[in-house]
Design a protein that fits this description.
265 residues; alpha+beta; 8 helices; disordered C terminus
Length: 265
């Protein structure tokens, strides 16, 4: 079955009728993200993610979203070890909310209604009482499920905030497609593209009024966190024995992941 939203195999709406006796046994394994080489990243995460991940912008015009690169090749996450453990210091919220997710038929509408879903293929789903119950004996939401809802609601708020940030970057013409070249251990050269980054020259050319707008919205800091994170691209390549060959341009291009960025939170 084709994956939904990058990591979800079969996201089904949570209901008392279907999941009244279900429990979720959460673990420390991130095997579900082993084949994902990038995930959406919210602006509230930039400060935590920038020190170790490369933050770039993926997607088509009008649907662009920041992503954290987890690998430089298709179906390769360099932050999941052989035992399924996460080797990075920070785990993106997109992964921490798993196996839950909000879904909506019209996620871009202001009055969109979101439905809480759970990936029924998650190994921790069970009806044997292992882990945290979703509903109590009276069929009411447990505190665990209430906490899940709170986390996803906060995530959705950040998703909307992130969309506004990207929309401003697009309106100011700051995003520019880039590409990067790598020489793999085998000697094979590869050129990867499909991402955008903020163009430094265009940023410097903004008017004082535009810069003030970015500063007042606390977005100028986000831009510099993004730009600073681009230096993490070479260490990613080195982790798989692929010394990066930096292009002549000042702004190196990050690689494009195979998976598409999610449209809804």
């Amino acid at each position: 079955m084709a994956k939904q939203l990058l990591i979800y195999e079969r996201a089904v709406p949570v209901t008392r009728q279907r999941h009244g006796s279900w429990s979720i046994k959460a673990g420390s394994s991130y095997d579900f993200a082993r084949d994902v080489n990038s995930v959406p990243l919210m602006v509230a995460e930039f400060a935590s993610a920038a020190p170790e991940y490369t933050i770039v912008f993926g997607g088509n015009a009008g649907e662009i979203i920041p992503v954290a690169l987890l690998g430089i090749r298709d179906a390769e996450n360099l932050h999941v070890d052989e035992q399924g453990g996460w080797t990075g210091k920070y785990v993106p919220a997109f992964l921490r909310r798993y196996p839950f997710v909000f879904s909506s038929d019209n996620p871009n509408e202001a009055d969109a209604v979101f439905t809480l879903c759970v990936d029924e293929e998650f190994a921790g789903c069970n009806d044997e009482g292992k882990g945290e119950r979703l509903f109590d004996a009276d069929g009411e939401r447990t505190q665990y499920l209430q906490n899940v809802l709170g986390f996803l609601q906060a995530y959705q708020v950040q998703f909307q905030r992130t969309k506004l940030f990207v929309a401003r970057l697009e309106a100011m013409g700051l995003l520019e497609p880039m590409q990067a070249q790598f020489t793999l251990r085998s000697g094979q050269r590869a050129t990867l593209s499909g991402f955008s980054v903020v163009n430094r020259d265009k940023l410097k050319a903004l008017s004082g009024e535009q810069l003030a707008e970015l500063m007042q919205a606390d977005e100028l800091e986000l831009i510099y966190q993004h730009l600073g994170s681009l230096s993490n691209l070479t260490p990613i390549a080195e982790r798989i024995g692929a010394p990066a060959s930096v292009p002549a341009e000042a702004d190196t291009a990050p690689p494009a992941p195979k998976a598409k960025a999610a449209k809804s939170a």
